[in-house]
Amino acid sequence: MIKVDCAIVGGGPAGLQAALVLGRARISVALIDDNRPRNAVTHASHSYLTRDGIKPAEFRRIAYEEVLSYPTVTRYEWEAKEITRAENGFVLSGEDGSRVLARKVLVATGLKEILPDVEGLRDCYGKSLFNCPFCDGFELRGQPLAVFSEQPGAYHMVKMISHWSKDLVVCTNGSNSLSEEEKERLRKKNIMVMEQPVTSFVHQEGKLEAIAFADGAILPRSGGFVAPVLQPRADFQATLHYERNELGGIAADSWGNSGVPGLFAAGDAAYVMPSQLIFAAADGARAAMSVVKELIEEEME
């Protein structure tokens, strides 16, 4: 069994930044990453200083090159299916029998997205349909856009996106995601609300051209934003018994402490929203510093 001071579960910006901080602190690290990043469908990542517009795969390549230059950091390409408590820390297990014994664990597994089951949506997602205006609003500025949301926060989403384009239509897909008061406010701002079910997103190689509705209506659009259901990608609550926050992530303080001795969380695994590279990386750095502090305090006892 591999023995390390800290196991990091997840190789996104939070996990990689944590590994960098820990590597520079000469902490032995097992970085467990199955190479299935949520932003793999995204053509470019934005709003990260010095890396604005970088392709996610290139971001990860550079990050791993930097992180793995530290001799105490080792990457393991498997999925942590189970984490259990042990006398000297935690045991992390993979389906292939891989096991790591770690004094501390930092969970940075991020989110998974559950998209509405509408024809063409997945083909357009990451190319002309997105979920974050701060990430992709600039590229869609001034275009005829759609906001597709079945979620209760639809009104807030529309208000935000209206800053990037005034040519907006809201599609609720037959859901009650908008109150009557909210719909009236949108109409006063000349934002059309289409409540009928959507049958398909018409596109050419992922570039949206129109939205087709069940009643036969066709709405020409060149892009838009979708509100997927976001859930923590990994769930270790049954064995680690941590508290959940209101969005389903691991409840942790601003320094990544979960309240479970030795267990830390960072990035989207902890706060869920806002889902931004720069937020996640900063969170990973803080959590890593907490790990170092705890390990040093234990050595001094």
Automatic annotation (TrEMBL):
Superkingdom to which the source organism belongs: Bacteria
UniProt name for this protein: Pyridine nucleotide-disulfide oxidoreductase
Pfam families documented for this protein: Pyr_redox_2
Subunit structure: Homodimer.
FAD/NAD(P)-binding domain ranges (all copies): 5-283
GO molecular function: oxidoreductase activity
Gene3D superfamilies (UniProt xref): FAD/NAD(P)-binding domain
Organism of derivation: Paenibacillus oryzae
Entry keyword Zinc: no
Keywords in alphabetical order: Flavoprotein, Oxidoreductase
Keyword Flavoprotein among UniProt keywords: yes
